[in-house]
Design brief:
The chain is elongated, with a radius of gyration of 20 Å. Strand 6 and strand 7 form a beta hairpin. The strands form 3 sheets. Strands 2-1-3-4-5 form a 5-stranded parallel sheet, with helices on both faces. Strands 6-7-8-9 form a 4-stranded antiparallel sheet, with helices on one face. It is α/β, with parallel strands linked by helices. It is 36% helix and 17% strand. The longest helix has 23 residues.
Length: 277
Amino acid sequence: MLVVDDDPTVAEVVTGYLERAGFSVDRAADGPEALRLAAAGPPALVVLDLMLPGMDGLEVCRRLRATAPVPVIMLTARGDEDDRILGLEIGADDYVTKPFSPRELVLRVESVLRRHSGDQGRAAGATEPELRRAGIALDLAGRRATKDGRPLALTLREFDLLAHLMRHPGLAIGRETLMHDVWGWEFGDLSTVTVHVRRLRGKIEDDPARPRLIRTVWGVGYRFDVPADEGAPADDAGASVEAVPAPAHVPVPAPAHVHVPIPPAHVPAEGSRGHRE
């Protein structure tokens, strides 16, 4: 593991809990040190504070994900939803808001690692080398995506979400089910699914404001539609909607919270943030 936080108290608490869970942990206090450690020995997962001095966590995440698909969990003291959504959009696998329970963080680390390990196993032994629907082709082993021959720049989780939807054309799948099957989470913020669907639409739809491939099924979730000649309903009129129920999960008991102090706010690195829905 690599823990990146400029607050020594937070870093020590997180490191201690991860080490007690059996992980070997390196620590970095800023972005350049984190990138240097990651380059010297790629970590299995990075716990990354959003508000770092100089180079902020978003830029560190961008650079980490540009070199390897390392799982990233972001820590944020900000309550602004846009900050959390931006972290997910640039490739973070999960986020935890300060103050947080270190034991909950360990559970999330283990969940993300299980999912990442499963992704690699499926890629290594994929029985279906490629998915093709509605002009989209997914090379599952090579993790490459194209639409009408044009490469699609998909994040790790966007690729997984699109593959899952394409495997079940014409079926309405609930957000809870997608969160479990794609992210491997037993708990989490369902807006994560919404954000990734919106991002996917922006990359695969001819008109993201009027999506024809990934349809919203109100009160259920989302459905991947393909042309009628491929065997799926062409439009919503008269099409039967088969909802895939969320699997029954064993509730995870709420962990006892250990107050982790919020570090003093740093001035984040300059960058523009566009308006989001």
